[in-house]
Write a structure and sequence with these properties.
homotrimer; alpha+beta; 2 helices; 36% strand; elongated
């Protein structure tokens, strides 16, 4: 089994709804987004997937969230913008062009700080 | 599959028994403890588990080891305080209140330095 | 399930062949190599595997690549020296002495930068 990984970051505001103490106040994070692709074997050119292409897709997604209030982003507004929900959202945006490419799984990790992350891992097949 | 992760650190002394060279002298580390929970799906509030609660439990455990000699901690004294053994010990302390909460697995990683860790992963079901 | 992890780094040059843009120019990276062993249970001395021994093997391998052009290393020359290929190469060099030691799996992660890695995971049994 092989993996490739790329990482980027974005700065965004959000607040939680519910019994989450100070996290219910509008605040923000320097989010770090880590994206991992898994595949059983490598292609003829020695790659699992073109890391440059993956990076471009990940940077585009991060740009769309950068300096935004996550609670106003279509697809996130109306949900509780926990790190888990942001991981779900980013997974859904990255997955479609990665399907039908012989890839096994996609993992998206959303770090709110160097001490906290949430991640979603799901099959691409 | 989803994950949440929290991290903290503690400074402690220890020494190994056996054929481990300089590690048999009393020394110490700035340990980093990483704790990961895994669960198949999210709850209605968009969380896998309340990260604030998890953090509090992890910080309490770290505090109980901070500025201590691990070879004198009940539950660790009498065993070889390898990073693996510390991961086992911390896993056992964190797991009980996490059972019966629909969580799938708990992982505890104990870093002795940025170059070395040991981890234990086990099912919570 | 338990894991132990060690990390080191080496500085090397390489270039890719194919449709990889600026990566086809000779360039280099401060590679970070992370090596993980997995095993179901611990031995009687409280270790999964002697981390000192693992570190020595990993450092030897890193030294053999340090300040080299990867495209001239026997076993890598003639292939496309992607991070995936370097992970494959390093896995093959580390695995032989680790077999028949009750270990379950070996993972080698090759970071080209803090933003990009490729990894290979395979069974040692």
């Amino acid at each position: 089994m092989y993996e490739v990984y790329v990482a980027t970051q974005f700065e965004a505001a959000h607040r939680l709804v519910g019994d989450f103490g100070p996290a219910t106040r509008t605040h923000g994070h320097t989010y770090r987004m880590e994206v991992i692709l898994r595949r059983e074997s490598l292609g003829d050119d020695g790659t699992l997937y073109d890391i440059g292409l993956l990076r471009a897709a990940v940077e585009d997604l991060a740009s769309s969230l950068h300096y935004r209030d996550l609670d106003e982003i279509p697809g996130l507004s109306g949900t509780n913008t926990t790190a888990e929900a942001v991981a779900y959202y980013c997974w859904e945006r990255l997955a479609p062009p990665l399907r039908d490419q012989d890839l096994d799984a996609l993992i998206v990790r959303i770090w709110e700080s160097p001490q906290v992350y949430a991640a979603r891992e799901d099959s691409l097949t």
